[in-house]
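thought: fold this chain, then report.
action: predict
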Amino acid sequence: MTEPIPHWPGRLVSVSDHGVSDHGVSHHGSGDHEVFVRGAPVPETGAEPALFVHGLEGSSRNWTDLIDLLRSRLACEAMDLPGFGDSPPRPDGRYSIAALAQTVIALLGQHGKPVHLIGNSLGGAVCVKVAATRPDLVKTLTLISPALPDLRPRLDLVRFPVVGLPRLGPRLIRQYQAALPPERRVAAVIATCYSNPGLYPQARFAAEVAELSRRDSLEYAAAALMGSARALTAEFLRKGRHSPWRDAARVTAPTLVIYGQHDRLVDPRAAGRAAHVFRDARIVVLPRTGHVAQMERPDLVAAEIRILLGIPGGFGRLTEERAGKLTPSPFGTKKRSLEQTVSLPPLVEPAAELTVDEVRRYSRHLIIPDVGMTGQKRLKNAKVLVVGAGGLGSPALLYLAAAGVGTLGIVDFDVVDESNLQRQIIHGQSDVGRSKAESARDSIGEINPLVNVVVHDVRLDNDNVMEIFSQYDLIVDGTDNFATRYMVNDACVLLGKPYVWGSIYRFDGQASVFWAEYGPCYRCLYPEPPPPGMVPSCAEGGVLGVLCASIGSIQVNEAIKLLTGIGEPLAGRLMIYDALEMTYRTVKVRKDPECAVCGKNPTITELIDYDAFCGAVSEEAAEAAMGSTISAKDLAAMIDAGDNIFLVDVREPNEYEIVSIPGATLIPKGEFLSGAALEQLPQDKRIVLHCKSGARSAEALAVVKNAGFADAVHVGGGVLAWINQVDPSLPSY
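observation:
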């Protein structure tokens, strides 16, 4: 029959394993025999070869989705182990791990150079034997749920030793085949191997039913299943120098080991032992994944393999034909996503080495399998710029330094104020009045003197942002105003750099990763800034001090993941934190094809005037304030002279309780915008408005002037200017 989802074409290949080593001892093997090899269309000349080895009851068909994602850079071939798929059995009828490894070694010997070897389940155990026995044939090793010994009880494994029994096994297989039609048996295998069986396409299900029916007619099929089950049972019981785990310890090739979080056959807790045994390995446990990750989550597996191979660039996606559409299956309806989140490639190359002091300092990182020596070397080689040494920048800088980021840049032109100390933990009492960038540098030196700190004690603007950003691998945005946020975003998009964004206000925080090459940018989420004065800053609305640490630490976590290439970054997702409710939730953010800076036809190809774009105040407020702004000293003179004025404080009640100008009446800005405040204003006095710094009072002034109070004015600089110029004894905030 013609398969709805085509597999790559295949051929029978003759191999000879005469003289191939078995447990390190010369063995005559079975002589000449044939194996079926399925090959994808060959990419450009010079592509490195890769061989894929399936698991028990599987075939080379299990690999076509994964090969589809890797074949643009690798010369991919998938083999049917002897007795499985379209491969006839070995002439000697042996199915031990060592015998199957002999066949694989014989096939690899025909390539003439080392290959990238990938195996699943039984095939994973075979690949471990191959890599340990013939390291000269294996360039890298990828194992997906490898069937290595684990004596923890697993109900789904009970059938394997039973099927392997010489007399009972054949009878059970015949009874099983007679009692259950092929459709039920295929469904049972999928239910066992998949975390979510609904992901299995209906078209492929029909093809596998036809394949199982064909295999039922083959005389050797039952013997292959029994022999392989018996071999796995023997391997699980084998001890000493021939133990599969002992073989794993002998593997010298760079190794990737992938486990499924919901694997019913291979316990994902074996990841800990794998991390301990393999010499040079990256261990990954994929969430919401079963025993055949290459079939259930091929995009995630391909992403991890690309990291192992050091292949740059974006990750391929399944074609619509192979991904499947909304089709019925025996397990319900499920659409296979083409936009699943994947790990991104490491942002930096690892440094040459770690010193003895660095190994001691970062030892708790080094024993984490996902980080290890390679990840820590990447951190050492990384250059990260933190924009702002304030609420978010303070914890971010401290934890980036503690983590061992080699070069930390700090850009901040402000000085430390006493009101900063409630949340900006990188500064202390003795730093009040000092440059924030220099204060942060000194604190970092106390945390980790091995970090190279670069101070940019300047205001970030259009004239310097591109030059400063170009010196770093990653940007961490800790700014608190919209103009700078849009400038940071646009500069990163134009330079092709990723950045980690965070935002805080009162009890709420947000964080995300923006990298236009792999997902949306900040403008995709917020195409336009809010109207001036609509969203108060932290200086106006306040922020819970500890919230800075919560969001800042999340930013550092994302930075470490990007630098080392581990985990699933927040690219394409917005994390929202509510400290009062103590809830975290994520919202999917899609790339906007019409985005002005990262879309298909961008209209912003260079930096713009961000102050004009965002507007500190509205046009109406700016027009009202023109010629109607007085200084704090002017207000003091008016009060001293007994002028007939009505002084109005447009801040919020909690701000009024902190500090107020004597004689001021509190009427919050919101009441002006609603019109409710106008009836409280006397007609026979001159109206004088003030707020904290002048922005909110300018907005209220526009309303007052439009209501006919033509001589109304507002105080530039607000209550802060009053404190600085008139009465320094009052508290500032």
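thought: worth noting. The mean pLDDT is 84.
final: tokens above.
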